[in-house]
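Sequence design from tokenized structure. All designs in this work follow the same two-part layout: the structure record, then the generated sequence. An example of the structure record is given first.
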């Protein structure tokens, strides 16, 4: 039987080969291995797992529960090579369920966001506000993840064919995203202005910062928060509010809404939408339906119409 630390390394390698990144789990399990070695313990037990999970002082019960979840997941794997392993029960540590409700932008909101991002902010170069405008619009019409957009390299955007290649995204998946002609035109215009700004300099990222580098997620988030405050979509002192990622949610909800309003069958469209969004399971796409009251109303109305239809 391999040592506990070797078992953790094998477990992480296996799950990463399936597309999981597990950065947080690697930190947790490395600390758990240290904990077990200090106690000269070789078998995972529920008692030791809970004791370790509760060690850091924290008022966040979800933090402790998350640490225990990492050990529980590893224990399921470890039990195959060490039958003395105990798998901690899911209810050993309480956790507070967080209900997340994405912000769905109206068409008017999106138009205001794009119009405001087009206007040059004092001290910013034109390529910066043009990049923001193009990025916001691209997410809004394709539903791409923010990280996917920022990771795009020049060779990933085929302007001749109107196809974007997303490489090694969430869960290590890659996919092709065809875009509408209007989107291709907007991307072509940005590319022209980008090349003019670089003036012969070489930059790998498609979307560039003022210093020719890749735009960071944090910088883009700050810019979007500042913009939504300016537009009144977020309070001046609000710590929460519409997120840039919510443009992706809005796109998915709008596609499903159009299915209902045009009489199309959402069940047939969902697999295509799921693939386009880069979801690994259809259940993730169904989540948009469940989280949006408007879509649920449309779904219920569709069902009622079927029930009331004459035999």
């Amino acid at each position: 039987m391999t040592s506990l630390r070797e078992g953790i390394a094998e477990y992480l390698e296996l799950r990463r080969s399936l597309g999981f990144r597990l950065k947080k789990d690697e930190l947790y399990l490395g600390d758990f291995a240290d904990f077990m070695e200090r106690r000269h313990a070789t078998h995972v037990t529920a008692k030791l797992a809970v004791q370790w999970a509760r060690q850091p002082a924290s008022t966040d019960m979800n933090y402790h529960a998350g640490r225990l979840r990492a050990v529980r997941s590893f224990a399921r794997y470890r039990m195959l090579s060490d039958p003395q392993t105990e798998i901690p029960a899911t209810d050993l540590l309480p956790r507070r369920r967080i209900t997340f409700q994405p912000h769905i932008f109206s068409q008017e909101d999106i138009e205001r966001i794009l119009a405001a991002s087009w206007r040059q902010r004092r001290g910013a170069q034109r390529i910066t506000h043009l990049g923001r405008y193009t990025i916001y619009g691209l997410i809004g019409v394709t539903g791409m993840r923010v990280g996917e957009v920022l990771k795009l390299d020049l060779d990933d955007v085929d302007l001749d064919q109107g196809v974007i290649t997303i490489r090694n995204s969430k869960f290590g998946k890659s996919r092709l995203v065809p875009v509408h002609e209007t989107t291709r035109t907007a991307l072509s215009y940005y590319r022209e202005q980008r090349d003019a700004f670089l003036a012969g300099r070489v930059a790998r990222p498609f979307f560039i910062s003022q210093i020719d580098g890749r735009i960071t997620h944090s910088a883009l988030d700050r810019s979007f928060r500042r913009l939504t405050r300016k537009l009144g979509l977020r309070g001046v002192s609000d710590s929460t509010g519409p997120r840039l990622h919510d443009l992706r949610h809005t796109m998915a909800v709008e596609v499903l809404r159009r299915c209902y309003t045009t009489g199309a069958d959402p069940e047939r469209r969902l697999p295509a939408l799921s693939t386009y969004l880069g979801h690994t399971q259809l259940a993730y796409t169904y989540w948009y339906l469940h989280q949006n009251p408007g879509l649920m109303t449309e779904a219920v109305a569709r069902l009622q119409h079927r029930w009331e239809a004459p035999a």
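Confidence is low (pLDDT under 50) at residues 302-311. We note this feature because it recurs in several other targets discussed in the main text.
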